[in-house]
Amino acid sequence: MKIKADFITNSSSSSFIIAFPKKVRGLQQVANVIPSKYAETVYNDAINQKPRRASSPKIRSIIAEEITHGYIDDPRFKESWDEERKYAIREGVEDQDLNDNPLWRSLFWDERRLKETAFANTLAEEFLEKVADDAYIYIFNYGDEDGEYFSEMEHGNIFRNLDGFRINKH
């Protein structure tokens, strides 16, 4: 357990998986779809990464991997407070054994990771089916720990004119 003895903030960060219709080549192209206050930052972040076409064989796994490192608010896969309890009942294990026994804990978390990975692959596939094959996929990361401007970028729905989604990494 980490204990922080000084000022503690409730900071957050998010990744954004965004499909641009064409490869980003100019600031005006970004300014046409992103609020002007943020266009230059998004442009600079876009040109400093390697975008992938939506039809790229590797892009689904890249997106799925990004999803598994955060949380997506999707009603199909809500984290359940009693998920461990349901697992214990299904396996015929006492709640205390599930918590105290390293083998049972490991089995539970292995199963949970498999479910999360499968769901991440489903979300990635659904997203890629929605966008054009010739679209370019970019991944942006913004967090409110970097100040008000980046907090607005994280929480301000700046990518609303493009296909994409947000991954919370609180």
Give the N-terminus to C-terminus distance in angstroms: 17 Å
User: Major β-sheet, in short?
Assistant: 4 strands, antiparallel
Number of strands: 4
Number of domains: 1
Structural class: alpha+beta
Radius of gyration: 19 Å
Please report which band the strand proportion falls in: under 5%, 5-15%, 15-25%, 25-35%, 35-45% or over 45%.
5-15%
Helix segment tally: 7
Quick take:
This protein has helices at 27-31, 36-47, 59-68, 83-91, 95-100, 102-130, 148-155, and strands at residues 13-20, 52-53, 136-143, 163-168.
Polypeptide structure, described:
The chain has 170 residues and is α+β, with helices and mostly antiparallel strands. The chain has one domain. Helix content is 46%, strand content 14%. It has helices at residues 27-31, 36-47, 59-68, 83-91, 95-100, 102-130, 148-155; strands at residues 13-20, 52-53, 136-143, 163-168. It has a four-stranded antiparallel beta sheet with strand order 2-3-1-4, with helices on both faces. The longest helix is centred in the C-terminal third of the chain and has 29 residues, at 102-130. Mean pLDDT is 88; it is low at 1-8.
Q: How is the topology of this model organized?
A:
Blueprint: E1 13-20, H1 27-31, H2 36-47, E2 52-53, H3 59-68, H4 83-91, H5 95-100, H6 102-130, E3 136-143, H7 148-155, E4 163-168
Antiparallel strand pairs: 1-3, 1-4, 2-3
Helix pairs in contact: 3-6
What descriptive keywords fit this protein?
disordered N terminus; 170 residues; alpha+beta; elongated; 7 helices
